[in-house]
Structures are given as structure tokens and as C-alpha cells.
Amino acid sequence: MIQKKYENAAQAVEDIKDGATLLVGGFGGSGLPSHLVAALVEQGAKNLTVVSNNIGAVSDGVAALISNNQVRRIICSFPVGPHADELIERLQNGTIELEIVPQGTLAERIRAGGAGIPAFYTPTAAHTELGEGKESRVFNDRLHLLEQAITGDFAFIKGHRADRWGNIVYNKTQRNFNPVMATAARITIAEVDEIVEVGEIDPEIIVTPSVFVHRLVKLEPQREGTVLVNG
What we know:
Layout: H1 9-12, E1 21-24, H2 34-43, E2 48-52, H3 62-67, E3 71-76, H4 85-93, E4 97-100, H5 103-115, E5 119-122, E6 136-139, E7 142-148, E8 152-163, E9 168-169, H6 178-183, E10 185-196, E11 215-218, E12 221-224, E13 227-230
Parallel strand pairs: 1-2, 1-8, 2-3, 3-4, 8-10, 10-11
Antiparallel strand pairs: 5-7, 6-7, 8-9, 12-13
């Protein structure tokens, strides 16, 4: 078991190497581990394969990694929008590969990776362009596609509160892709708003057990003018 660390985001991501596969939690801006992503932009690892539901805004999320020429391949559900111009440009010049995966299939591929299931069949995307070239089989008179599990070298997740062992609870819609991604990576790094002592979190509300969390980063409140905001 890797020793859990309570450090700043820069220290938490410093050993991510070129060519790593990275899972990034969040659904839009909800539950996005933006401080860890920003730290990786500063760290500069390149040729990354990034798995995320969407690419985010140009200044935030996976789009920031794209802007910094750190991404070689993206696996996501929602790459479109006004923030996708740089992605489209890189797709056209061949510097980035894009794999679009239906949202439910993406979540299940990650969940399967965390559960040790190498592949599964689903009817989603059968008879569409997304299903072209994939192994298929008929179950109950319906065509199903074989989908491969997804795992990562690292996962970035965002939680609300953790104890010092790494047991995590989430605030409302933070509980999107973060829990499944935590199980599917060799090293999971969590940014949280608060770290408390073991026993201060009701075990019944823990969503991600500490066995899946290797590093914790507590977000420090930042002052903007006279208003205290939580980063």
C-alpha cells in the first residue's frame, strides 16, 4: 500500500510521467479536481492519455492540458462546445486522437476496470458509427458490442471531506465519475475541502473507502478582496 500523503497539489502530481494514462473526475464543473489538473499543467507531463466525461473550459479541466500540448489521446463522452476549438484543430492536424464513448458506457468501462472485469457486452452504440469494427454478439435477439474496461496509471478525483486515512464523502453532484475512477487507477489522488481525524466521518456515509485513495490534498481557502472563497 502506498503511503498516503497530505501535501500540496504540485507535490502530489510531481511523479506523473510522460505517456501516463490519467482519469479525471467531474461532470462539467461539478466535482472537477481543477487544482490537481492545474498542478499537472505546471508540471508539464506530455503524451498523456486522458479519460474524462468532458474536456471542460479552455482555462480549466482537460482543455487546459490540451492547450498546453500535454495530451496525445482523449477518451470522453462530450468533446463538443465553444471550448473545443483547440481540440478540433489538433484532431485535424493529427496531434491528438479522440475516442468518443457514450456516457453510460464510459462509466461502466471505468467501473469494470476497477472491478477487475476485462470487458462486457452492451447494446449501446450498436448499429452506429461508434460501433464500427467492434466485436459483437446477439443476446435475446439484440445486437451487443464488446467494450473493453478502462484503467489508469493515475486518477484525479474531487471530494468534499476525507479522514486522514483517505475515506471520502462527496458533496451532492461531486458523486459523478469520481467514485468509479477512484477504483480504477493504480494511484488515486484526491483533492478535498477538509481532512478530519479517523472516526469523525460516519462510516455509513463513506462513498470511497480509503483502500482506493493513495494521496490527499486539502484545498486551502483563498481570499479574493474581502470575500473568503474555497478553492
